[in-house]
Each structure stands twice: as C-alpha cells, then as structure tokens.
Amino acid sequence: MRIFRFLVLMLLSTFTLAAEPKTEDAKIQGLIDHIGGMANAKFYRNGSEYDAKSAAKFLTAKWNKQKKGINSAEEFIEKVATKSSTSGKPYLIKLEDGKQVECGPYLSGRLKQTGKPPAKP
Question: Beta partners for 48?
C-alpha cells in the first residue's frame, strides 16, 4: 500500500510540474511565434508592409538587442512590439478579415485572454 501511495504522489507531482507557468522568455517567444504564424495578416512598420515571418524576425532581432532591459512578456510588448523606436509610430496588423489593429494592444489582449502565450492562429 505504501508503494502505491508513493507512486500516486510521484505521478501527481509530475503533473504539477508540467502545469507550472512558462518562463517569461517562453511567453515572449510564444508571442513572436504567434505573430510569425499569422500567414494571412499584413504588418506595417513606419509605413512599409511586411509578411508575418518578416515581422516575427524583426521582433526577435529587436528583442535580442533589448533583452537585458526586458523582464516580462508585458515589458516585451511595451518596449519592443508596440511602436517604432525610430519614428514613434505604432506597429499595425491588418488581420485576415481586413480589420487593422495596433500590434501592442493586440498582443496584450491575447496574453490577458489566455494567461499564457497565444496559440498559433
């Protein structure tokens, strides 16, 4: 009986560990992966249009340059994914349905909605 209890406790602790929240870096990577997976969306930065993969690549490079000053997914959105550091203009996303939204609030909404990085579209 003791062995059975031990095994049950081991199994439960394994599931608990697997359910722990992701690290902030993993959340950020999840946000970038989400952007990269939005194949039918268009991204606008300083008046130029980009596809999803290009937008994800750009956000990754910008994050890597600023990584030391970013401690959370929310800071990533605020400091990296919201607006151009050159012009101050917001990054925009034209969704598949034609609706245009600002990238920062879009990602913040998705993060709040799920409590974790958004799933790929």
Answer: 45
